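User: I'm putting together notes for a lab meeting next week and I want to include a structural view of one of the chains we've been expressing. I don't have a solved structure, so I'd like a prediction I can at least talk through. The sequence is below, exactly as it appears in our construct file.
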Amino acid sequence: MYEFTYHKPQTIKDAISLFAKADDGIYLAGGHTLIPAMKVRLRAPTDVIDLSALDGLSGIHEESGALVIGALTTHDAVATSEVVARAIPALNKLAAGIGDAQVRNRGTIGGSVANNDPAADYPAGLMALDATIRTDRREISVDDFFTAMFETALEEDELIRSVSFPIVESATYIKFPSPASRYATVGVFISRQGGQVRVAITGAAACVFRCTEMETALSNNFAEDALDSIQLNADDMNGDMHASAEYRAHLCVVMAKRAVASLL
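Assistant: Thanks for the context. Below is the predicted structure for the 264-residue chain, given as C-alpha cells.
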C-alpha cells in the first residue's frame, strides 16, 4: 500500500471540498473494494476521504410510495430491516446473500452501487425495481446510471445520498453464487407492477442489464414456459475460470425460470 492522506469530514460540503483539493482523491464508504485494491497497489490515491461520519446518509424509510435507503446503510441493515420486509422483501433476501457477515456489516449500498462491479447484487435490484439514485446534486434514473463495467453516470466528485425504490406488487431475486465469494455467477431480479415486468441480470455480462426479451415474454404470459424459446447470445457474456460465456447464457434463463416459479 502506498502512502496517502486520510480525511474524515463531517459534512458533504467538506467531503467534496477535500476531493477537489486532492491530486488524486477517492471516497471511502465500506471499503470492501477500495482497501483490497490499495493493498495490492491497484489503486494509489493521494487522499482517502472517509464518508462514515457524514450525517443523513444512512437509514431506511418509506416515502410517497417508495422505499428510500441511505447510501451509507449497510447490507446487514437492509437484510434485517422490518421496513424493507414490509415494503420490498426481495431486497432483504438480496442483501442477506451478499458476502459473509463481516462484509454485510461494513459494506454499504452506496458503495456497491457506485462501484458497479459486474457481479454485484444491488445493481440488479435497482435495475429491476426502476430505482432512482439521489446524489448531492441531482436524481438519476437507474436506466441511465449503470454505463459499463465499473462505470456509472456519476461525476468524478459526485456523492450518492440515497436510493429510492418504487414499492411494487411483487419481486424476487435468485442467484447462482460463487461458492467462495458469494458474488453472482448469474443473478436474476424480477419485479411485477400493474402488468409490467422488469427483468435485470447481473454477473453474466460486463454490466448489469435488462433482458427485454424476457420482459416481453413474461408480460404476455407470466409463467416459466414463457421463457422456453429464449436463448441469450453467449458473445455478450463474460467467460472466466468460474463459468464459460455459454454456460452463463444458459444459466440466465435457468435462474429466470426459478425466479418466476418463486413468484408463482
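A couple of points you could mention at the meeting. The two ends are 50 Å apart (CA to CA). The chain has three domains: 5-50, 60-166, 170-263.

User: Perfect, that's what I needed.
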